[in-house]
Amino acid sequence: MTTTDAPLGDLTGRRAQAIEDYRTLKAQGRVLDLTRGKPAPEQLDLAQDLLSLPAGRWTAADGTDCRNYGGLKGLPELREIFAPVFQVPAERLLAAGNSSLELMHDCVVHALLSKVPGAVRRWADETRVAFLCPVPGYDRHFALSERFGIDLVPVPMSDEGPDLEVVERLVADDPTIKGIWCVPKYSNPSGVSYSDQVVERLAAMPTAAPDFRILWDNAYAAHHLTDEEVEILDLLGACEAHGHADRALVFGSTSKITFAGAGVGFFGASQANVDWLLAKSGKRSIGPDKVNQLRHAQFLRDTDGVRTHMKAHRALLQPKFELVLDVLEQELGGTGLARWTTPKGGYFISLELVHGGASEVVRLASEAGTALTPAGATHPYGDDPHDATIRIAPSFPSLTDLRHAVTGLATCVRLVGYERQLSR
Amino acid sequence: MTTTDAPLGDLTGRRAQAIEDYRTLKAQGRVLDLTRGKPAPEQLDLAQDLLSLPAGRWTAADGTDCRNYGGLKGLPELREIFAPVFQVPAERLLAAGNSSLELMHDCVVHALLSKVPGAVRRWADETRVAFLCPVPGYDRHFALSERFGIDLVPVPMSDEGPDLEVVERLVADDPTIKGIWCVPKYSNPSGVSYSDQVVERLAAMPTAAPDFRILWDNAYAAHHLTDEEVEILDLLGACEAHGHADRALVFGSTSKITFAGAGVGFFGASQANVDWLLAKSGKRSIGPDKVNQLRHAQFLRDTDGVRTHMKAHRALLQPKFELVLDVLEQELGGTGLARWTTPKGGYFISLELVHGGASEVVRLASEAGTALTPAGATHPYGDDPHDATIRIAPSFPSLTDLRHAVTGLATCVRLVGYERQLSR
């Protein structure tokens, strides 16, 4: 996190300049969207070959006709390709539908309606079910949980992952805490990657709930932005080593590798968890879209193919992230108004306002034409206690649009920040 | 249902012949599979163009980039194509994932975990939830319901659909009866299409449960086998007309139109039900695979394109159904041992054994190499009270294999039937 210095000089003058800049911004009347982590069209173009694959082929390596029913576990050759990416042995990695979010949702649903391995009762019959949520975090995790009445308990994040002192204390004491949401690599939105020690402790810690689960959303497993390609510890292996094999549920997808929404979701876990999910999902489906899986296997070819492909993404994304960081430094550096992250991968930059007022900044930016993720979205129940966090999603806009949007955002931060400093 | 005459002549001799025929069958040692309603490879070849579509295109008619996130309702142009097929206005027809079974499953899940429109409480909080199951019926409907502890109540089928006297009495008295599973056209496995009067009465009948639902699995909506293309009454319209707009949940898919498992599932209902499902599924998914939907829209072009395509399926399927009916007539006609259906569409022929013994027939056929759907699978809990129904799925095998398998099946029917007649 880059920290800016304390402000110097004439606050009133700075505020006047911010007001003037905001007026100009509004007059320009440009409409832009920084709300979601969507790939840009140029990124999607990288997988353009998928649009005419699998061409003349329809049989899998094992002779399966991918055009017909069956194959609940997904195409073996695609599971082989992604096993190293998600750190799950191929035989326990399932290739499923078009999203990992739906796999997370369905795991929660099945846990509510049938006992997970190790559970005393199904979660629907518990008096309370709570999940820990490292904050800032991913709003769709929160929404999915809230929808089922699962209580969300925020846990602070450090530069190495969730604060394990807090996590260990909570899970040791409270059997109603059944899970923790984690985006372990290039976390949404902080960009933090969990240290080996954090992963070890998550795997090792005693939990009051016998059916505690780590929901490991490894959404950015291969999504590097620098030459330092961060590797995290293998959670599944660590959980096994610590005698908690059933604790880890690993999720991933190709949504930000190939096509967003037309890719493939993956699930990996212990054999008991995999058998449990297969037994449940076997009542729901005769099998996933194997043609799309074959298409992906043909296109990506092997694990190295995934790496090569992700380098092409990086080439498109890195300049956008650098631009945002440059603009933030230029516009807010030394103002003492904000801190921001410098992620080594993933899809987001997290901007933290020293004096709060994130909701007001988002509102002002919106009135000037730039849509941002709602303030508070990074916290359970939309409740950011300091009203401080703004998530910036640089991937979708062009460089020109991005410069305009982030400059405008910085203007709003200055406007609100100086106002707040003056009114203290 | 073709009824055979009572048997004449020497039973002992007939049995001896059956024993001899069975011995020959076993000696041939051919392994065949008549278990599931799977399309044959030649049928899948009809949609071969899908394997290289959408080629250079990725934008929907409204300009949406199908390669990116969003569009929870599905691609408008595909919903337009299938609106007449499933008798649902396009604006209330959702195009979803790769199966309709999963949509049925998810509707049940969401009804268990959140109130459906009109419900007093969510189904998980009811002391009992029961579904009516016209029998013979579809085993995956039963399995999906059983998995959630939903009680299954069998209801007899007539040539016009479920026995409405029974249905009306049960639903009028018992508020725990929350639904009925229906395959209204070319039903699985009886081939029955519901008469207009049956559909009207289903739509009109008073129900003790305010949140009663008809789960209308229109799986064979376009799957004709004769020139008489059966049309059923529009359930959704009928329910609206009778003031029960929220009663109907309509499901369908292209599984047996394009590719089985790589097609598109559809859901149609009242606006309240559609809004309810969208609100729930919006927590599960950012949207379906729009590229596959675009591929389908390009390939099928329009509703007439679907009709034309289904004629090509019929050309491949009709000879198989005719072959089965010929063999049954030749081998069992006049024996008094069995009755069978002569479906005008769909995927199955239902064979009913006059003297029971379906399990034994299936076992003998299996020992001779021909796998059949387990006896009882057509009934909830696998409980066919007369052990009489055998489902024949003629679509997948070649004509040669089919002749062998059905001749063998008939041999087993004769063997068991004469045995039973003699031991009475």
TrEMBL record, chains A, B:
Keywords: Aminotransferase, Transferase. One of its GO terms (molecular function) is L-aspartate:2-oxoglutarate aminotransferase activity. This is Aminotransferase class I/II-fold pyridoxal phosphate-dependent enzyme. InterPro entries: AspAT_Ic, PyrdxlP-dep_Trfase, PyrdxlP-dep_Trfase_major, PyrdxlP-dep_Trfase_small. The keyword Calcium does not apply. It comes from the Bacteria. PANTHER family: AMINOTRANSFERASE, PUTATIVE-RELATED, ASPARTATE AMINOTRANSFERASE.
